[in-house]
């Protein structure tokens, strides 16, 4: 799916007006993996929610496959940092919920849900409850549920931000595999520059107050990439230096 933003501005009215985003222009190609990095509060989530159709610009337009975005749609699936799973349902039932949204007939759901769980390497845990799972496993379930609605685009808001480094590394590999096998369009938000370099075809950098794009980097490295690769590190240093992102955590990869 092609996604575009044209001169998008977003302000929030409160006790004082906050201009979260200003002058946002964006072109995402069908099948592209785009990462957006920037410090906390620069408007990354706001931009992603507008691409999802949960928030609307106060100026300019968001366009998906040539049509203005007027609300949410199954073709654009959003996944949050905390996964937002149903704790009282089994792993399988959480994924099946996505299929119910898709209005898939009941008897087809189980098999399809298991297939999705296989894709995220969780099939043996189909009957487990969500509270029995580690953080990484929960995010895999969320990913399977997001994929269940067969979206054209995955919108991911810092999905691995709360995970330890080892688990995050495993999920980086799995997400690259999923992307290579499905060729979905992915927009991935993170404040970790190295993570962005590992995953993205292209890394867009935002700066805050108001949020806007200040740099863009094409990442020309073979896949699968790993966060400890020297070439990944070299890109990350360049990107961080370019925009003076004071994010030593990201550079250290912790
Ligand atoms: P990020 O995801 O990059 O951390 P956000 O998109 O969450 O940033 O927020 C960008 C700015 O917009 C922040 O200053 C935040 O306080 C403000 N903001 C976001 N959502 C709202 C809202 N619903 N009402 C008022 N201000 C908001
Ligand atoms: Mg955010």
Question: Any descriptors?
Answer:
single chain; 254 residues; alpha/beta; Rossmann fold; six-stranded mixed sheet; four-stranded antiparallel sheet; 10 strands; disordered C terminus; binds adenosine-5'-diphosphate; binds magnesium ion
Can you tell me about this structure?
The protein has two domains: 1-21 and 29-75 and 153-254, P-loop containing nucleotide triphosphate hydrolases (Rossmann fold), CATH 3.40.50.300; 86-150, no CATH class. It is built from eight helices and ten strands. It starts with a strand and ends with a helix. It has helices at residues 44-52, 91-101, 106-119, 135-148, 165-182, 193-199, 230-242, 248-252, and strands at 3-12, 18-28, 33-37, 59-64, 67-68, 76-79, 153-157, 185-190, 202-207, 212-218. The structure holds adenosine-5'-diphosphate (ADP) and magnesium ion. Residues 12, 14, 18, 20, 38, 40-46 line the site of adenosine-5'-diphosphate. Adenosine-5'-diphosphate binds next to strand 2 and helix 1.
